[in-house]
Write the structure tokens for this entry.
Amino acid sequence: MLHFVLTRLLSLTLSLIVASLVIFAVIELVPGDPAAFMLGLNATPEAVAALRADLGLTGSPVARYLDWTGGLLRGDFGQSYTYRVPVSELILQRLWVSLPLAALALALSTAIAFPVGLLAAARRGRATDYGIMGATQLGIAVPNFWFAMLLVLVFAVNLRWFSAGGFPGWEAGAGPALKALILPAVALALPQASILARVLRSALIETLGQDYIRSARAKGLSQGQALRRHALRNALIPVLTIIGLQFSFLLAGAIIIENVFFLPGLGRLIFQGITQRDLIVVESVVMLLVFAVITVTFLVDIAYALVDPRLRHRR
Amino acid sequence: MRVPVQLILGAILTAVFIAAAVLSFVWVPHDVTALNIAAKLQPPSATYPLGTDHFGRDILSMLMVGARTSIAVALVAVGIGLALGVPLGLTAAANRGHWIDDLVMRGNDLIFAFPSLVIAILITAVFGPSAVNAIIAIGIFNIPVFARVARGGALSLWTLDYILAARVAGKRAARISVEHILPNIANLLIVQGTIQFSLGILAEAGLSYVGLGAQPPTPSWGRMLADAQTMIYTAPRLAVLPGLAIVFMVLGLNLMGDGLRDLLDPRLRRVRT
């Protein structure tokens, strides 16, 4: 087990190093000097040069790479070019919007997907199953930003139950803040719920074909009892993997939805960073997201190996 | 062998969009680059079957030309994934346990760890918004998908007797991969290709919605939605039609992919009967 953890840890470290190199290289390729971009057309060359030095843009790429990664290791994400505050401060602020949004969307999608997936598996091959499968096909095909627009059209423009966008901040109280996150969360949850329901259904149908389910039925359990007590538990592994992936997707994947609803989240921070050439923000936030995905994958691997000893030795 | 209903349904939907896109090269009801402010925001009529937008452009014509952009971007992105991913996957499978296999698979995992939408937005923003850069941004993330599918399919084939026979006959791994493995994983690749095609349509719509896809005056479905959003109070109809086009195109491709998988995968067929 120790050997397994150490090799996975080594591969995790290597992945992070390669990822940081890739991100740094892409950012290096960005045309346009951030200092000149910030000072505008009338800036003197001296002013631009002074700002470049101030932003830490002078020096060789190798030195700047080491400076950046060294900072990351100490928890220093650099200083935003446009906001003139530490990037870590910006990230913390934005996480207060992105984390609740992702959690809300994930809770919604799981709450929809479980009953729906169970029902489809229990009624497999019948009209209910076909109906659910058709509906989830549709759910996958709907682009979430378009679904978001339709939600705004119905619930904000026509019914006036919600505002069409914006975020009042948590200072305004939990009620108004959560209310502002409901429509975006629903828009994010629909495609996720459709995918999750389909994965759950096929995992359940596969376990339902196993011998132990037949044994459970033979000792007198009904189809529903066998499904809930034995099949669901064994079908959970692929489902949990998908849920883990969806969470990390939701953190960054809300980038377009946050733009539709003008939410000040991580996605919007990256988007503004890209358009305003605030490259240090883009660099550090993307690295943080990659770090999150790689770490979640690592933890899931370790958790599986703890549960299932066979996985420790499989390549 | 029964042809699955969803395959027929999906193929019809897809064919309609491809036909509309092809037709748009030779004929559209109205010119999509000509502005006609006098005829702006008209409801559907005999002249404008689906009405006009805020510049007086015909919505039907814009949807037809938009289909062309969407299909071209997604299709070429699938081509990039196939052309680079399949050789990588085949090489990895042929060198199972070797460091080459490890390198390819670790590289795959690494690309999967990147938030694809963020990187696509970064690439198109950095190298300039255009259809070509959208293709590259979407295509990069297709490579590991096809590499994984090709490797997985090839690994199970390498253990079979007829491959052993080919090795005994003195064929090299590369030749076996092309002559014996590739034809037998073609069905897997076709199914995955349709799925990536539909994901590409969604990704292109997302990119052009935030203004990073095909540039005006070339119409694209995502851009039409972005324009419609600013007029959602005055002309909600404009927000509905391009969205429906995306949904039906993606639905058609997904149904076709599922149908093809049922038709081509003998293992599934046995389970069904």
The radius of gyration of chain B is 22 Å.
